[in-house]
Amino acid sequence: MNEATSRKHWTELADEEIDLSDIPEVTEASAKHGTMREALIQKNTLLIDLDVYDWFRRQGPDYEWRINQLLRDYMESTSRAHPG
Questions:
Q1: pLDDT tens across 28-67, in order?
Q2: What contacts 60, CB < 8 A, 6 or more positions away?
Q3: Whether the model pTM is above 0.85
């Protein structure tokens, strides 16, 4: 994308003008790790130990996503083990 196209609003860009070079290819292996779902997110308050929170924050800027993903994985594995 050149400077002229980078200043355009994204709705004005033709498909050919969109630079996809920095987007990784979706492979079968990478697709297994991702899930496509409508984002149903609600801001909540959760009481967790400070050292746990600090550890997650040190993992990087997506620490809230990581916490959510671990909780989701636990929920799904528990649901499979104990349906209903």
A1: 776 766 666 666 788 889 999 999 999 999 999 899 999 9
A2: 66
A3: no
Q: What single-letter amino acid sits at 27?
A: T
- The 3-class SS string of the chain reads CCHHHHCCCHHHCCHHHCCCCCCCCCCHHHHHHCCCCCCCCCCCCCCCCHHHHHHHHHCCCCHHHHHHHHHHHHHHHHHHHCCC
Return mean pLDDT, the chain. 81
Say what the alpha-carbon torsion angle 10, 15, 17, 23 is, to the nearest 10 degrees.
80
User: Could you tell me the residue ranges of all domains in the chain?
Assistant: 3-81
CA–CA separation, 21 vs 57, rounded Å? 30
Q: Nearest 5°: phi and psi at 68?
A: -60, -40
